[in-house]
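Design request, tokens follow.
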């Protein structure tokens, strides 16, 4: 029996999405950049997928740039904007202190171009507030980047208000919205962001494909040069099967959103109440009220999260100790440090991320197994 509770790391490919993709691996294999009939058919399909995505996000069609994923999209936006503006006077970049590693590392690289990177604090609930941003802003800020939903603890920041603060000081605003689909309604015109990124494999689409929303009025430099695809912003032969998969997965995610949210919210409450009842000395990391219903990041006092993870894995249960993107890095989570978690417990946490195929029976089994795991591991702990 395998129980998958790591949907924040990646989701399984929806069979309906795969069905849409399959013809573009073999029957409809032509390059969309080719000018013959097969190529032009592929181009029409590509642009149809772009329009489909743009309509869902309420964005201009020419603002959607397909990439290999959110990591590339975040790098493209952050570094591309900075390079395009390197001769201007705005030399500060502000990112939240709980950003994904790809945003943090891309921002760090900008110091070689003379930029200063400032870190916007999150509060104890794991939320970045407009007031905190106001305290850091002045007229020399080029870009502010704050994720919509934190990948480790699932907390939600008010992107619309944060973007408004940035714009008041003449700065651009970017949001990594990878963990937001379909939990939040992503309406580009309503949010008034300048840049936004998504990755298909987080919402039951294929790996290796994502997108950047880039305001067409804002100049950024391309990072990948070549044949000039994606309006000269991102060169390279299009991953047409992946793009078809992304557009279909995004469509299904929002088409079935209400039903899914109702189910997942009930499961989250059920799971958390059962955990609290069956296992003592646990704590939820981050806000309960302002978090996506798929995420529960839980502290287990007196034991290592890594030990819990490995024990559960032996029992067929897949969970995470934090961001899958830094799974090989055993240093304490900077997100949990930022929200003020006691240093003695920075490595005592498990992220459970529920998903479309999670069942109550699976959660019951997980609680039973976890209860046994925690009891056994705490028996060896010198500080219980």
């Amino acid at each position: 029996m395998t129980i998958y509770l790591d949907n924040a790391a990646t989701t399984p490919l929806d069979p309906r999405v795969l069905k849409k993709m399959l013809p573009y691996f073999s029957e409809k294999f032509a390059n969309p950049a080719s000018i013959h009939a097969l190529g032009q058919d592929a181009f029409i399909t590509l642009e149809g997928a772009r329009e489909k995505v743009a309509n869902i996000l309420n964005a201009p069609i020419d603002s959607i740039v397909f990439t290999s994923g959110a990591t590339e999209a975040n790098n493209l936006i952050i570094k591309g904007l900075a390079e395009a503006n390197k001769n201007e006077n705005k030399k500060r970049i502000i990112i939240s202190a709980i950003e994904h590693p790809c945003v943090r590392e891309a921002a760090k690289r900008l110091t070689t171009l003379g930029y200063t990177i400032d870190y916007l604090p999150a509060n104890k609930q794991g939320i970045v507030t407009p007031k905190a941003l106001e305290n850091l802003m002045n007229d020399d800020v080029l870009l502010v980047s704050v994720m919509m939903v934190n990948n480790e603890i699932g907390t939600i920041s008010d992107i619309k208000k944060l973007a408004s603060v940035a714009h008041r000081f003449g700065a651009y605003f970017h949001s990594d919205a990878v963990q937001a689909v379909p939990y939040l309604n992503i309406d580009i015109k309503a949010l008034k962001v300048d840049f936004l990124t998504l990755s298909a494999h987080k919402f039951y689409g294929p790996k290796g494909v994502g997108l950047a929303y880039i305001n067409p009025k804002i100049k950024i430099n391309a990072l990948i040069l070549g044949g000039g695809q994606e309006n000269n912003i991102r060169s390279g032969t299009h991953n047409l099967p992946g793009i078809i998969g992304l557009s279909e997965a995004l469509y299904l995610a929002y088409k079935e959103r209400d039903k899914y949210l109702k189910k997942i919210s009930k499961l989250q409450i059920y799971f958390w109440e059962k955990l609290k009842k069956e296992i003592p000395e646990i704590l939820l990391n981050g806000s309960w009220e302002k978090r996506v219903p798929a995420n529960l990041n839980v502290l287990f006092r007196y034991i290592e999260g890594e030990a819990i993870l490995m024990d559960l894995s032996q029992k067929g249960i897949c969970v995470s100790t934090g961001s899958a993107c830094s799974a090989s890095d055993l240093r304490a989570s900077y997100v949990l440090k930022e929200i003020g978690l006691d240093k003695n417990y920075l490595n005592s946490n498990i992220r459970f991320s529920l998903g479309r195929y999670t069942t109550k029976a699976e959660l019951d089994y997980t609680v039973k197994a976890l209860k046994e795991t925690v009891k056994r591991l705490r028996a060896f702990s010198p500080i219980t």
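Comment from the thread starter after seeing the answer: thanks! The domain at 3-10+257-380 is CATH 3.90.1150.10 (Aspartate Aminotransferase, domain 1).
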